[in-house]
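User: Quick one: structure for sequence A, then sequence B.

Assistant: Sequence A:
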Amino acid sequence: MSASPGAAKSGAAKSGAAKFPDKSAEAARAGLKVPAWLRRLTDVRPEEVPALGWAWLYIFALLSSYYVMRPIRDQMGLAGGLENLPWLFTATLVGMLVLNVPFGWLVRKLPRARFIPITYRFFAANILVFAVVLYRAGPEDTVWIGRVFFVWLSIFNLFVVSIFWATIVDVFDTEQGKRLFGFIAAGATLGAITGSAFTAVLARDVPIPFLLLAAAALLELAVVSMRGLARISDALSREPGAAAQAIGGSPFAGISRVLGSPYLLGICLFLLLFSITSTFLYFEQAGIAKRSFPDRGSQTAFFASVDLAVNVLTLGIQLFLTGRIVRRLGVGLTLAILPLVSALGFGLLAVAPTIASVVVFGVLRRAGNFAIARPVREVLFTVLPREDRYKAKAFIDTVVYRLGDQVGAWSYGLVGFLGLSATALSVLAVPLSLAWLVNGLWLGRRQDAMAKERSATEAENG
C-alpha cells in the first residue's frame, strides 16, 4: 500500500509520505489494516484509517442534522412569500458578518478542541429554542418564526460545515487531500441522504418541533466525533501538537488576510460566482414548487425528494469517481468541471426553460458541486497557514458565500422589477460561468505551485 522509506524520500515533492516514512510500518505493528472493501473505494493507507472513520462520522452527523432541517427551512421560506426571499438573504449576510467576529475571537483564544464544541453546542441550543417556540406558536406567529429560522439555518449550515473542513485541512495535507477528500465528502452525502429521507418520510405526520429535536441530537454526535478525531490527529498532522494550541492573531484576521492575498481573493471569486449562479437556480426551483404543490406538507416533501435525488447521485460519484478524477486531471481542470456544466445548463434553460430542464440541471449541478467541486476546493486551503485555514476560510465560506446569494437574490428581484422573464438570468449566468471556469484553472495552477514550494521548504528543513 505505501512506498518504502527510500522511495518516499525521493518523491518528497510529490507526496506527503516523506514526512512520515515509518507510519505504514507503525500501523502494521499496531495491527491496522485497510479493509478490502475500503481499498477498492479509495487509496487510503493503514495509518489513515482511524482518522478517516472519525471524519466520516463527524460530517455524517453534521449533514444529517442540516438535511433534517433544510426542507423545513425551504417550506418556511415559501410560506413567508417568494417576494420576501431577497430580504431573508440580506438578513443572512448581516448575520454572517456579525458572527465572524466572536468566532474569530474564539479561534484566537482557544484550541480547536474547545472552540469547536462551544460553537456546535451554541447552535444546538438554538435548535432547541426553535423547537419550543414552534411547539407553542399559533398559526399567525409561524410565518415570522419561519423567516427567522430561514436566516438562522442559512448561517448554521455554512458555519458548521466550514469548521469541519477547516479541521480536516488541519489534519490532512495536500497529497492526502487529493486521495481522501472526495471519499470524506461521501460521508457528508450519506448524512444528507439520511437526513433528507428522514424528513421526506415523516414531514406529513410528525410535527416540526420533534424533527428539530432529532437534528439537535445529531449535532451532539458531531461533537463526539470531532473529539475522537482530535485524539488521533497528531499522528497525521504536519504540525504535531498544534491542535492543542490556540491559533492566536487578530479576531479580524479573516478579513484582513483575505484582502491581502491574491490567492485567497481568487478563492473568493470562485465561491462568489458559484453562489450567484446557485441563487439564480434556487429561485427558479422555488417558484416552480410554489406553483406546482398547493400545501406545505407537499412542498416540504418535494424539497426533501429533490435533496434525496441529488445526494444519491453525489454518493455514487464520490465513492467511485472523485478521487480518480482529481488524480487524473489535477486540481485546476477538476475545478473547471462545474463551471463548464453550469455554462451548458444555463444555456439550455435560456433556450428551453421547462420544469424538466430546471430539475435535471439543478440535480446535476448540485451533485457536481458536492461530489467534485466542494472537496477539491478544500484542497486549495491545504497550502495555507493555520490562521488562514480557520479565520480566512470561515470568512470566505460564510460572508463571501452569502454575498453571492445577495447579488443573485437582488438580481432576481431586479429582473422582476424590470418586467423581464427568468430567462434573462439564465442568459446572464452563461458568461459568469465561463469567467468562473477561467478562475478555477488559475487557482489550480497557483495551488500546485504553492504545494511544490511547501514541499521543497519542508524537505530543506529536514
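Sequence B:
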Amino acid sequence: MELIKKWTDDLRYLPYHQWDDKYQLFLNETIRKSHWRQSYHVQPKSGLLNDPNGFSYFNGKWHLFYQLYPMGPVHGVKSWAHVSSENLVDWQSEGIALLPDSPYDKHGVYSGSGIVIGDELVLAYTGNVRDADWTRTSYQMLAHMGKDGVITKDATPIIPAPPEGYTHEFRDPQVLFYQNKYWLLIGAQTEELEGKVLVYSGETLEDLQFEGPLDFTNQSMGFMVECPNLIFIEDKPVLLFCPQGLDKNIMDYQNIYPNTYIIADTFDGEQPALKNASSLSNLDHGFDVYATQAFNAPDGRALAVSWIGLPEVEYPSDSEGWAHCLSIIKELQLKNGQLYQTPVKELIELRQDQTSVSGKLSPKAAVIADKTNNCYELVLDFSADSQGRLLLYSDEEMEHSLVLDFDAKNGMISVDRTHVSNPFAQEYGTTRSLSLEENKPLSLQIFVDHSVCEIFVNGGQHVLTARVFPAENEKDVYLEGTSGDFSGDFWCLRNMKND
C-alpha cells in the first residue's frame, strides 16, 4: 500500500466513514515512523492541522480546538479536533468535536472561537457548503458543550448570509462579551475584493445585528481578512488578524500571507471603530506563523496560540501523510506601546537535565550541545558588543543547520534556513531579519521540538518561528562569533503527557 499522492476533489470531500480502515491504519503507521513528529506541540494523529479554534477555559480545564483533515496532508473536508489541558502544557485528545455532518457545514467545519456562557462553552464556527456547481455558501453557526463534554449544534445559522455588498468569503467568527453586550467579529471580502472585518452585536448571540465594517485604518487590507481576533490588554484593544494580498508598501513581509496586529486606545462600538489605532505590525518575524488566536483568560492573562504552518505552501512532512502543528501557548503583554509575546510560565514543567554554558565568543565554534534529541529549550544572554552566529539542527561538519546571525552592537538578528537539509517555500525567501536597538544586551529564549523552532528575542519583544526538517544526524548546537560574551542554560524537555 502507498500513501495517496494525487488528491482529487472527490477524495478530499469523501466522508470520513467511507474511507477504508486499512488505509487509515497504514497512514497512522507511516506517520508513527517519522522523526519530525513533535514531543510537546499539539499535532494531529494524522493528516493536516490548521487554524486553532475555540481557545477557552471552561469547567476547570483549558480547551483548544483546531481544524483537522485526518486523511492526508491536504485541505479536505474539515472538522474540529478537541484537546484539553489542566496546565497549558500537557494536552489530552478529546477526539473530533465537530464533524461536517449537517446541512449547513457538510463541506467543512471552518474556523471560529469559543465563549463561556452560563454552564456552557459556546462555539461559533463557519459552516462551508458547496452546491452542484461547486459554488460556496458560508453560514455562521453555534454549537454548545456542556460540563459533561457533550457537544450539540444549533439547527440553524445565527448569520445565514453575508450582508449586502460582500462575497461568500465570509468566515472565522470571533465572539466576545464586552460592555454588557455580545460581539461577533468576522473576516470578510467586499464585492470590490477588499478585505474587511465585520462587526455584529446583540444582547444574545441569537439576536445579533450587523453594525458595519470595523474602522481601524484608511489603508487597504488586501483582498481578504482572515481570523480577526480582538482582545483587551490593560484595557487597550489589540486586534490580531491575517490580511491576504496586503500591499508590501503598507507593511513589509515575505511570507505568502502575514499574521499582523494593531493596538488602539479604545473600542467604540457605536461606530464601530478602534480609536487612535497604531500602524500595522508583524506578529511573528519568522517563516511559519498564521491564524493566531488569543483570548482574555479568567486568570487575567491574555493567552495566544498560533498555527505553525501557512496556506498554499507544501511542507516536507507532506510526504509522510501529515502536516503542521500548533505553537506553544504564549502570554501577550503591552510594554512601551508594543506587543510582547512570552512563553507561558507553566512551560518550565517540561524542563529536565539542565546544563549551564558561558564564555567569550570565538571564531572557533563552541559546542553548546551535541547529539541532542532536538527537543530542548535554550536560553542565551549576550553582551552589548556581541557579534556571532548560533547554529541549530547542525551536523558535526556544520554544513547543514538553521543559522541565527546576531549583531547586538549594530542591532540586527536574522534566521537563515538556506542550508537546511530539506528546503521548502524557497520562493518566499530563506532568510528573515529584524532590527534591534543598537549597543544593547541581547537575550534569546529558544524552543526546539524536532521540526519546530520558536525563538523569543529580548523577553518576547520579537518572535521568529520556523519549521525545519533535519536529517537524522543533525542534532548539534554550535556558537561562534568575533566579539562579546555569552551565558545561558540548556534544558532537555520531556514529552507532553497526553494519555
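Helices lie at 9-12, 21-32. The mean pLDDT is 97.

User: Thanks, that's what I needed.
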